[in-house]
Design goal:
By secondary structure, the chain is mainly alpha-helical. It has six helices and three strands, in the order E-H-H-H-H-E-H-H-E. Helix 2 runs antiparallel to helix 3. The N and C termini lie close together (6 Å).
Length: 135
């Protein structure tokens, strides 16, 4: 799991919220949120296998589209994979496993936030935005 510097995440959210130039980006973040909620609803409602597979397929398609549109997502993941991994101090209790598609979409969110910070010149380095990586 990647942990980010809260300052930069807050700055990205503020920039996106206050700026009219990021309409397209806001739409992408909204689509991600919608897909994650759709996956959660599908799993909670225990719908049929076909519907589950379709919702997951749509989430993977969105993830692929976003990674092409925002190359910073893959750059962020490459940098995170090159950093030392911290061991967890305490094993979390009652951990529920998220579908891979939700994890990918959450990574997309943070990659888009990193992209915003870099484009606005708040920092020049993804390494500054990533605080640490934990197993």
């Amino acid at each position: 799991m990647i942990y980010f510097n809260n300052y930069y995440i807050y700055e990205a959210c503020s920039i996106i919220h206050e700026s009219k130039e990021f309409f397209d980006l806001k739409e992408d973040l909204s689509r991600i949120d919608e897909k994650i909620k759709n996956i959660q609803r599908t799993f909670i409602n225990h719908t049929n296998d076909f519907e589950v597979q379709e919702v997951l397929r749509q989430a993977r398609e969105l993830d692929e589209h976003l990674r092409r549109k925002y190359p910073t997502i893959n750059k962020m993941l490459k940098i995170a994979n090159s950093l030392p991994i911290r061991s967890r101090q305490f094993a979390p209790k009652n951990v529920t496993t998220k579908p891979t598609e939700v994890v990918l979409l959450e990574q997309d969110i943070y990659g888009i936030l990193c992209d915003t910070i870099l484009k606005k010149g708040v920092t020049r380095s993804i390494e500054e935005i990533i605080e640490y990586v934990e197993e």
